[in-house]
Amino acid sequence: MKAMIAAVLLLSAGAAWGGDATSGCVICHGDRVSLREQGAEAMYLDPEQVDREVGMNGKPTCVDCHLGDPKARDKVSAHKGMLAPFLVAAGKTLKGQAVPRAAVGALQPLVPKGDGMNSMIPNGDPQKLEAAGIKRIVGIQWHDRDPDTMAYAPKVAEQTCGKCHERTVKDYNRSAKGLTKNQRAFRDWTEKQPGPQNCGMWPGQNEELIRSRTAIPYTAAMNGAMERSCNMCHASCNDCHFKPVAGKGTHAFGKPDTPSCYGEGRGSICHAGPMDRRRGAGYVRGEYAFPANLPQGAHVKAGLECLDCHKPVNHQFGHLAADDARNACKKCHAAIVKAVAASKHRKVDCTSCHITVSGAYQYTFWGQGHYYGVETPYGKHKEYYGTRDLPTIIKNPAGRWIPVKPYPMAVLNQTKELGPTGLLFRAIPKRSVPGNPKIGEPLTFEVSRKATDVNDAYIVVGTRKDLASGNNAVLWIQMDKLSHAMGKPRNCGSCHDSSAQVGKSEWSFFEDRDVTKPFAGSYTIVADNNGIRFTDVRWEQPSLAPNRKLEDFAPFAVLPATAWDVAGINFAIPYNKKRTDAARDELGRFLAELEKKGDSSKTAELRMIAYHNLAMAKKMLKTMK
Fold it and tell me: Cα separations (Å) of 184 from 83, 225, 285, 442, 536?
């Protein structure tokens, strides 16, 4: 069949992809000479190569995926209603908004320029960019997104992907990920649950409520800029399945893999954002990490893919406290998992011991700032990038000890107050959330989440009125679960030599609309039976950018040093010096005895078992010949 198609193509330009002999797509896009004369040679496509890349035996035609009119013979008519990837631009005229590739001279083939985080983002023509008032291209989005809001468009997916994958698309469009359900349930900064959070309140279909809660002017332009920024991080079909990074050309598709989970070379988006930029213990790290020199975890070094541990069912990916990923440990570490399950540490998550240094945000403040040049009361001042030497260990609602990274946060310019909450996990009370029917979402959809469904915690410290603005500022401690950057374990003494948990944070901040040069600082976090405290807080004097106030992005510099300290919560790790010393001596004697057996795979296994369950290792040693 392929040979027949090739022969037909040699005889006539009227043949087309997917066996559609009447389509005009290949007449234009299969004519390299004509496209070169028009200055658009990059738009040339070899029909057979496209069929090979798509890998569906020629079933989908061009218009099945891109729409448009295949019978038209002029460009305007043929491209009417057609879908195409578009760029996201920022500058004098565009504020994180869509621009066609052709308008800025960015018609290069959609293949990566190397392996970097931004390898898929084209440069564009400098003269055309300047003429359009564009300072920079900040991203590229695939054609299954709404160019007005940047949101994944279910209607587009149904018209395109749904032609061949109808059930799959319907499943995804109803899923938590497809509708961004959990994030969109955050509507009000001053709700006790789900509480204020690092990513802020969802702006889509929520402008009026946010405006009513804001003590200074809040406009539609401000809301729109924030909505576009939020939507870019949340996945469409092509975000996961379009595979240009795989090196197979511009029409390759396949199962999600680690590069697609990390934005596929289109910046720090998708899981790169919350994993490496916010939590700081991400899976890939490298250039995605802040700072970039953080050590990668053992699993990414071993070549594991995200889906080796995370198993979605009908596009339902579980939740942040799901057992599926943890149970996946048994595949490679069956003996260790068995040992831990029968030990005194059976309620201690693997990550509690095997994640040490974390990076990324050490503070985050929502105050006067900007999105893509639009000044707003809700600029996210997150660029306090640095390191935390050890996580803090807390119990989740299921009684499991997990590692978190507590750091101070605040949202300014509020009209309402929120009082102290104590330690909470982010439950979402059952609620109806408005959708966007214009792009194919339902009018409303229901969201709820139990405290046992999530491992992210927080403590609302309370509301302050003593900033210079006089407006309410809600303060809280963000406590994100750390999950992925696992490697050699922390020292046993870091938990068992004291009931107090102590961590050191160091950071450097730079955002050119806030300060004229970087400034650095540090603090120590102490969590014990008296609560949680941020001590020894230090920072260099910042050099303010024009029209920016210190309280906008660094309220810690104007509030009392104890502003985020919370008493009355017991964060102590169970501690008994006599018992700890005895256990350490017992382990030391066993390891010395094991050393006499010489090096072998069996003694190496016993050594690992001993650190996780000494009693089990002793029994195994007795049976060892």
Answer: 27, 16, 27, 14, 37
* Cα 392 from Cα 304, distance rounded (Å): 27
291 prior amide bond cis, ω within 30? yes
Give percent helix, percent strand, percent coil of the chain, each to the nearest 5.
Answer: 30, 20, 45
Span 203-218, mean pLDDT?
96
Integer Cα distance of 102 and 511 in angstroms = 31
Residue 168: CB atoms within 10 Å: 16
Which carries the bigger pLDDT value, residue 518 or residue 255? 518
Who contacts 52 (Cβ-Cβ below 8 Å, separation ≥6)?
Answer: none
Residue tagged 């403590």 (tokens) = 459
**Cβ burial 332-362 (10 Å sphere, 16+ → b, else e):** eeebbbebbeebebeebbbbbbbbbbbbbbb
Neighbours of 499 (CB within 10 A): 17
Helices (H), 437-576: 493-496, 550-553
d(CA 418, CA 617): 51
Three-state DSSP string of 582-595 = HHHHHHHHHHHHHH
pLDDT value, residue 533: 98
Do 297 and 499 contact (CB within 8 A), yes or no? no
For residue 187, what are its two tokens?
A: 């509507």
Phi, psi of 488 (to 5 degrees): -60, 140
Residue 376: strand pairing partners? 369
Residue listed under structure tokens 């939507």: 231
Q: Distance of alpha carbon 45 from its chain centroid, rounded?
A: 34
**What does DSSP say about strands 392-395 and 401-414: parallel, antiparallel, or unpaired?**
antiparallel
Query: In this structure, how many other beta carbons lie within 10 angstroms of the beta carbon of residue 590?
Result: 17
pLDDT per position as a tens digit, 409-467: 999 999 999 999 999 999 999 999 999 999 999 999 999 999 888 899 999 999 999 99
Whether the pLDDT of residue 7 is over 90: the answer is no
End-to-end CA distance of the chain: 64
What stretches of 415-471 adopt beta strand conformation (E)? Answer: 422-425, 428-434, 444-449, 457-464
Cβ partners under 8 Å of residue 288, min gap 6: 117, 262, 268, 272, 276, 277, 282
Average pLDDT over residues 506-530: 96
